[in-house]
Amino acid sequence: MRNTGSSDLRILLSTLVISGLVAGLAYWQLRQHWMLRPSIPTGESIPEQTAPKWQKIALATTLRGHQDEVNAIALSPDGNLLVSGGDDRTLYFWNLATGTALGQAKGHTDWIYALVMTPDGQTVISGSKDKTIKLWNVGDRQLEATLSGHQDFVNGLALSPDGRTLASASYDHTVKLWDVPSRQEIATLTGNEGIMLSVAISRDGRFLATGGVDKLIRIWDVPSRRLLRTLEGHTSDVNSLAFTPDSSQLVSGSDQDGIKVWNLTTGELQHQFGTEGGQVFSVAVSPDGSTIASGHGDQTVKLWSLSGQPLRNLKGHSGAVYSVVFGQDQLISASEDGTIKVWRLFPGTS
User: Fold this and answer.
1) Closest CA to 37 of 314, 45, 346
2) Res. 34 pLDDT band, cuts 50 70 90
3) N or C: which end of the chain has fewer CB within 10 A?
4) Are 156 and 195 in contact (CB under 8 A)?
5) Please, what is the average pLDDT of the chain?
């Protein structure tokens, strides 16, 4: 019995020693992983759950050609083609791989305020101060159709994920829905008050968000065109709206309140930040849902986590930044200074 007990004791001691060695090795490996992990260039510490997939950002190119302010940009689904429009009333088509202009399209008689591109990359749609919405063939840059119905400036456009439903916001106090294939107006949403500045459609195609000078954000059910919720909290014009990829949150940018992030399930305001950059003219959410980009009146593009932690402050424009758009590995900004900047996002390594 004593021999058996002694043997059991030796086995127990051996097991404890081996367990200690394994635990020590695991600790060493984990410590090495964090010691070797790339640092954030800004010096900021970003929690793992909110960290973007990129660790470095650099200016790739500056696109020049517009003769006046650039108000709007739209990126093709494959990220190779960019279309821009502004106060010179001209659409520019850009090859992003080479940074060269492919051509122009003219037809609007006043400033171009908004642009969207269809999911197939074949058609770009523009909204203008001339009260019209125009559809252009991307291949030959020819005008396909003109949608008339608004009685004042068309400030914002949003397209459903299937490319069939277009929403437009206007100075005439209305938001209209259009059937893109038939080029017909579907409905005018009632209940908005004052000039409408911004619209966004969720990635699942279910929700439409509208904003304007009445300082309210309204959430609509797209299929039924029923008002679901009104978000209150802004104290100034709502200039831009963007849904997160999972359609659970909405990001809004305004004249004086900076950026707000809303929970669409509860309607509650989750975060507010970005007031130090002056007016927020544009907001966008990265495809992976980790990062917000914002274009500001102080001539900067700012990057944030969804909780409002500052990630980058990109300088280079010499005028207010009116539009920002994310690609898969790039961020594009358009400015009052007449230029478009393409920023390259480099993935991090672990």
Assistant:
1) 45
2) very low
3) N
4) no
5) 87
List residues bridging with 210 in a β-sheet.
199, 218
- Tokens of residue 14, six digits: 């051996």
Distance, CA of 177 to CA of 222 (rounded, Å): 9
3-state secondary structure at position 154:
strand
Q: Where are the alpha helices (DSSP H) in the chain?
A: 2-36
Closest CA to 69 of 85, 80, 53: 85
Q: Residue 40 carries which DSSP code?
A: P
Q: What angle do CA 280, 285, 291 make, to 5 degrees?
A: 95
Write out the two tokens for 118.
Answer: 């269809």
Is 0.90 surpassed by the pTM of this model? no
pLDDT, tens digit, 9 for 90 and up, residues 189-209:
977 779 999 999 999 999 999
Place of tokens 């609509």: 220
pLDDT digits (tens, 9 = 90+) for 130-159: 999 999 999 999 999 999 999 999 999 999
CA distance 166 to 95: 25
Q: What is the CA angle 217-219-224, rounded to 5?
A: 150
- Distance between CA atoms of 270 and 290, rounded to whole angstroms? 15
Beta bridge partners of 174: none
The secondary structure of the chain in percent helix, strand, coil, rounded to multiples of 5, reads 10, 50, 40
Question: pLDDT band for position 110 (50/70/90)?
Answer: very high
The pLDDT score that the predictor gives to residue 277 is 83
Q: Are 196 and 170 in contact (CB under 8 A)?
A: yes
The β-bridge partners of 32 are none
Residue 97 pLDDT exceeds 80? yes
Which of these, 261, 152, 255, 159, lies nearest to 208 by C-alpha position?
Answer: 159
Closest CA relative to residue 264, chosen from 217, 213, 212:
217
Q: How many residues does the chain have?
A: 350
The band of 50, judged by pLDDT with boundaries at 50, 70 and 90, is low
